[in-house]
């Protein structure tokens, strides 16, 4: 598919060009690429917020083209939950419970049922029950973002699409949030699609990676395949995960790594072997 912003006007601009790919059910897919490469534009096609200018997007058994009627898109919006950058900016209700219940109620769920659902979602995102009656605006930034995510999860999506979900959080908050998505992926079998500039998160969590550049999908594969060629990454303004960069630096001191470790566990294992067992003895 291809997508042109403001197609047919003098302001037309390419967003995506000839992108062909499949995001598998149950996968944890990361989308990387430098600023303006088309990541957010691609995400918005995953729940038909944008429709392809040419070509098709197939979500489950629904085929979206430029001609698809907006009326037919509601089930897709329920199935594919979208967490935008700085999702907390979209909170607006008087209480956390009402904010989380807003989506399900809008989709026809009875109010009492939706509030029960809100209580369950607060648990799922790791917030205490007493936030339910608070104003979302009295919470910390990290808590507000969790409330926004709870509102998306309340729709019971099978796919969770995340656009830089940890931007602006401190390291501990980032780590907690990434662990939360990992739990949803592992325990509930959710398909996760993550746009990120954090190569460490790609190495730690993703099983598949799409690399975007100037609206094109220029490479896809496992994290190991994507991170195997540092020069190629540099040419596309991308870096190595910190662990891999550290291992590469250690090769200058005589250490040998094959393959280059992508996670701290892999680095520790390979180092232990080379320094006589180390902590593993
Ligand atoms: N609403 C818009 N109208 C016109 N052009 C747009 C619009 N949004 C994005 N674009 C253009 O489409 C291209 C892809 O942008 P997109 O936001 O998808 O990139 P991105 O990879 O998500 O960038 P970032 O990492 O900065 O979020 C860019 O050239 C951008 O300028």
Automatic annotation (TrEMBL):
Chief site of localization: membrane
Keywords tagged on the record: ATP-binding, Cell membrane, Membrane, Nucleotide-binding, Translocase, Transport
GO molecular function, one term: ATPase-coupled transmembrane transporter activity
Residue ranges of every copy of the ABC transporter domain listed in the record: 1-239
The keyword Transport is annotated on this UniProt entry: yes
InterPro entries hit by this protein: AAA+_ATPase, ABC_transporter-like_ATP-bd, ABC_transporter-like_CS, ABC_transpr_CbiO/EcfA_su, ECF_ABC_transporter_ATP-bd, EcfA2, P-loop_NTPase
Enzyme's top EC category: translocase
Subcellular location: Cell membrane
EC identifiers of the protein: 7.-.-.-
Topology of this chain in the membrane: Peripheral membrane protein
Residue intervals passing through the bilayer: none
Subunit structure: Forms a stable energy-coupling factor (ECF) transporter complex probably composed of 2 membrane-embedded substrate-binding proteins (S component), 2 ATP-binding proteins (A component) and 2 transmembrane proteins (T component). This complex interacts with a number of substrate-specific components, including FolT and ThiT for 5-formyltetrahydrofolate and thiamine respectively.
Function per UniProt: ATP-binding (A) component of a common energy-coupling factor (ECF) ABC-transporter complex.
Family to which this protein belongs: Belongs to the ABC transporter superfamily. Energy-coupling factor EcfA family.
NCBIfam families: ECF_ATPase_2, PRK13634.1
Protein name: Energy-coupling factor transporter ATP-binding protein EcfA2
Organism: Lacticaseibacillus camelliae DSM 22697 = JCM 13995
